[in-house]
Amino acid sequence: MRLAEVELRRIRLPLLAPFRTSFGAEFDRDILLIGVVTEDGVRGWGECVAGHSPLYSSEHVAGAHQVIQDVLLPRLWPLPDVRAHRAEAALAPVQGHRMAKAAIEMALLDAELRTVGVPLAEHLGAVREAVPAGVSVGIADSLPELLDSVAGFLDAGYRRIKLKIEPGWDVTAVRAVRERFGDIGLQVDANAAYSLADANHLAELDQFGLSLIEQPLAEDDLRGHAALARRLRTPICLDESITSARAAADAVALGACQIVNIKSGRVGGLLEARRVHDVCAANGLPVWCGGMLETGIGRAANVALAALPNFRLPGDTSASDRYWRRDVVTEPFVLRDGSVRVPEGPGLGVEVDEAWLAELTTSVDRVRPPEQG
Ligand code: OSB
Ligand code: MG
Asked: Is the pLDDT of residue 346 over 80?
């Protein structure tokens, strides 16, 4: 497979409601989409999950845009075959920039699988047709507001609730939700907002029977997570710390977590995400699919990934209407019986609504390979 053109398209998409975490609030997303066109005229789409500012991780959308255009694409033009596994090898010498690499890989996989008529889920080794969906609930302005939004998501049928926590919004929020809704699937995500000195405080969460606490400590603090794991009954799940299959193997060896959140963008792509899945499966750790407030493009990839066998907990694979008034794909993801269906068409299995995309677009850069010979 060879490329005729790549477009870097930035869109602005307002969230239906602000989403607040320990590292800040999001109101509307500034999203980088990668569109590829092969020499045979087949199109593929990828979504970059880098945030507007480098707060969740070291990457940010403007940096990803620049590094894709100036560093990553020039490494792909000389390749006689630019299918995803070949591109991954060609980009491996570039340090970091995993979200940037993952966006390109997603677009290449979409194009190559459309060419051969294979759905992404099937290509990755999926074993289910629908995936149970959870929902990630941001930090609210008040407990009544939190309880209202949780009630709405439970009514909609979500299988579990994940509460974002931070110091000052943890034990009281979890207690309020447990008291009001009883024995629901419940977990929390701290986005690295605590330190090991908070261990006794975090142990107060043990009384609520949470399925897990996600990333309580800093991204690079595997040893701290291992120490914390020895002091909590609540299982520790890592998100930010798991940047590769090797990082997952390290976390397992250290006893830093009992569960892993997998996001393909965070680990550099869907192929590496599958390796993280496999490392965890081999070590008996369940995984679940995280989310980064994706449009229907990135969501299609998440849902395909979440159909692999060791995804044993509901993911942050919520329906399109949890985020957007109108998604960028022609058929939004919907919640049915608490699950989201895995797309069945080739590649990502979703069609982009080109007219709507055009309205949302804030900039487009079209890049063609340099003339050969
Ligand atoms: O830590 O899982 C996270 C969103 C943006 C950045 C980080 C995270 C999140 C979420 C939202 O929790 C999950 C979703 O896409 O619904
Ligand atoms: Mg998280």
From this structure: yes
Query: Ligand 1: distance of its center to the CA of 41 in Å?
Result: 34
Is residue 76 domain-shared with residue 92, that is, in the same domain?
A: yes
Residue 50 phi, psi (nearest 5): -60, 140
Percent of the chain with pLDDT over 90: 99
Q: What is the pLDDT of residue 100?
A: 99
- On the CB side of 15, how many CA atoms lie within 13 Å of its CA? 17
At 120, phi and psi to the nearest 5?
-55, -45
Residue 4 phi/psi, 5-degree rounding, is -95, -30
Annotated active-site residue in 164, 274, 299, 322 = 164
* Average pLDDT over every residue of 214-241: 98
**Ligand 1 near 290 CB (within 6 A):** yes
DSSP state of 320: G
Rounded alpha-carbon distances, angstroms, from residue 294 to 85, 109, 302, 359, 371: 23, 17, 9, 18, 35
Mean confidence (pLDDT) of the chain? 98
- For 28, the enclosing helix (H) or strand (E) is strand 24-38
Do 55 and 152 belong to one domain? no
Give the tokens for residue 340.
């989201």
**Is 101 assigned a catalytic role?**
no
Ligand 2 centroid to Cα of residue 260, in Å, is 10
Whole-model pTM: value is 0.97
**Whether residue 263 lies in the annotated active site:** yes
347 inside domain:
no
36: left (phi over 0), alpha (psi -120 to 50) or beta: beta
- pLDDT at residue 276 greater than cutoff 70: yes
Beta-carbon neighbour count of residue 357 at 10 Å? 20
CA of 72 to the centre of ligand 2 (A): 27
Residue 186 CB partners (closer than 8 Å, separation 6+): 160, 161, 162, 163, 174, 177, 178, 208, 209, 210, 211
Best residue among 21, 26, 28, 320 to mutate for probing ligand 1, ranked by most atoms within 8 Å of CB? 21
Which residue segment(s) compose the domain that 79 sits in?
Answer: 3-117+353-372
**Of all atoms in ligand 1, which is nearest to the CA of residue 189?**
1
CATH number at residue 153: 3.20.20.120
pLDDT at 177: 98
